[in-house]
Each structure stands twice: as structure tokens, then as C-alpha cells.
């Protein structure tokens, strides 16, 4: 299919060029993370759901203290708030985020290592959000009508950016997000992907919905 071939070509070109030109930034951020707090450079986070339900490890710069997931699981109040905010917490209200972590999250620099996932074919430059397995399970129980949208979403690869990312990110709840992601899959085209990529620049610069 022409679209699939063109999209993979765009992904390969974008990820290779991105990794090449951003490599100095990657080195600087990695050093800053190590100086700022103890722990690995990349975040140790649960696997995400990819195309056809296949799980994969998403690469992100670590923006939290070590054992962040355990801290969350062992704090009922924080966990409740986390779920109420669509499995995200506002940067200024999450005690697990480091000083460097606040900066790289607000600027979306923490997301850049996903270029590795794109190069590996696990993600695309543009696509739906990469959901956690437990997030999909719990939210589909809470919103039964969302099952049809999730099915459509899992027919494509998750993206580094996407329709929901340029439309408010964390300000959009799960119910709205899956509708937008499904709409993208149904409407997708190379021109649509390029339009979303262009919209990503002002969305990142504004920091709207960043968490």
C-alpha cells in the first residue's frame, strides 16, 4: 500500500535525521540528568501497547526519581489523583519529578528518545497515543463505548506526536482522546501527517497540556 510505504519512509528519514542532528542535545541532557539525580538516563516505565496489541518498551529520558512507579503504587492519594487526571499528573503536583525532569517535560525533550522506537518500527512520527495496558483495561470498563475506538487505534502504530498531542495533550480526557486517535487512523494520509508535524512545533513551544 502506497500510504504504508510512504509513512515508513517518512519515519525512517525523520528518525535517522533526528537522531543525528539531536545527538549533541541527547548527550547534554543525559549528563544533566545524571548530575541532577541518581538513576539511569532512560526512564524505567511499564511497557506500552503498540500495533495489534503488541507490548513494547518506550524510550524516554528519565524525569522522575528512581522507583517512581513504586512510590505511586504505594501512595493511595497520589494514585487516585493520577487516575483522575487520565493517568498523568500535572508537573507541579507530582512529587516524583526531579528538577531537570520539570524542564525536559515542559519542553517535551523527554519524548525525543522515542526516535529510537520509530527507527525500530515500533512507533511512527505521527500516530495515536501509546497507551499503558492497564490504562486501556480500566478505561474501557469505565467507558464501554470506547472499545470500538480502541480497536481502530490498535490497527496502527502509536506516534511521537499525533492529533491529541497538538490539541491540548493532558487537557483532553481518555474518552475524547480515543475518539481523536480513531479519527486520525480513519483519516490518515501523508499530507495529514505533515500537517500534524507542523502543528506540533507551536504546541511544543507553547507547552500547552504538558505534564
Q: Overview of this structure, please?
A:
The protein has 211 residues and is mostly helical. It has one domain (2-206). It is built from nine helices and four strands. The chain starts with a helix and ends in a 5-residue tail after the last helix. The mean pLDDT is 90.
The helix fraction, in percent, is 40-55%
- Spans of at least 5 consecutive residues whose pLDDT stays below 50 are none
Quickly give the structural class. Answer: mainly alpha
Radius of gyration: 17 Å
The major beta sheet can be summarized as: 2 strands, antiparallel
SS summary, helix count: 9
What would you call the shape? Answer: globular
Mean pLDDT, to the nearest integer, reads 90
Largest sheet: spatial strand order: 1-2
By DSSP, the count of extended strands is 4
**H/E topology pattern:** HEEHHHHEHHEHH
Roughly how many Å apart are the termini? 36 Å
Number of domains: 1
Which strand-content bin applies to the residues?
under 5%
Output the keywords.
single chain, about 210 residues, two-stranded parallel sheet, 4 strands
Short description:
The chain is mainly alpha-helical and 211 residues long.
Secondary structure layout:
Layout: H1 2-36, E1 48-49, E2 55-56, H2 68-73, H3 76-84, H4 99-106, H5 114-120, E3 124-126, H6 133-142, H7 147-153, E4 159-161, H8 174-187, H9 190-206
Parallel strand pairs: 3-4
Antiparallel strand pairs: 1-2
Amino acid at each position: 500500500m502506497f500510504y504504508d510505504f510512504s509513512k515508513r519512509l517518512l519515519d525512517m528519514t525523520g528518525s535517522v535525521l533526528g537522531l543525528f542532528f539531536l545527538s549533541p542535545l541527547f548527550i547534554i541532557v543525559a549528563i544533566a540528568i545524571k548530575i541532577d539525580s541518581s538513576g539511569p538516563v532512560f526512564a524505567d516505565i511499564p511497557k506500552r501497547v503498540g500495533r495489534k496489541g503488541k507490548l513494547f518498551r518506550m524510550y524516554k529520558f528519565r524525569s522522575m526519581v528512581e522507583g517512581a512507579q513504586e512510590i505511586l503504587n504505594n501512595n493511595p492519594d497520589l494514585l487516585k489523583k493520577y487516575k483522575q487526571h487520565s493517568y498523568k499528573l500535572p508537573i507541579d503536583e507530582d512529587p516524583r519529578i526531579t528538577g531537570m525532569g520539570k524542564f525536559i517535560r515542559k519542553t517535551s525533550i523527554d519524548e525525543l528518545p522515542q526516535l529510537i522506537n520509530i527507527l525500530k518500527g515500533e512507533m511512527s512520527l505521527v500516530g495515536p497515543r501509546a497507551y499503558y495496558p492497564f490504562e486501556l483495561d480500566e478505561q474501557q470498563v469505565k467507558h464501554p463505548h470506547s472499545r470500538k475506538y480502541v480497536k481502530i487505534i490498535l490497527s496502527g502504530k502509536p506516534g511521537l506526536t499525533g492529533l491529541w498531542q497538538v490539541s491540548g495533550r493532558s487537557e483532553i480526557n481518555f474518552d475524547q482522546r480515543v475518539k481523536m486517535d480513531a479519527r486520525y487512523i480513519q483519516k490518515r494520509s501523508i499530507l495529514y501527517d505533515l500537517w500534524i508535524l507542523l502543528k506540533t512545533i507551536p504546541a511544543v513551544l507553547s507547552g500547552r497540556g504538558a505534564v
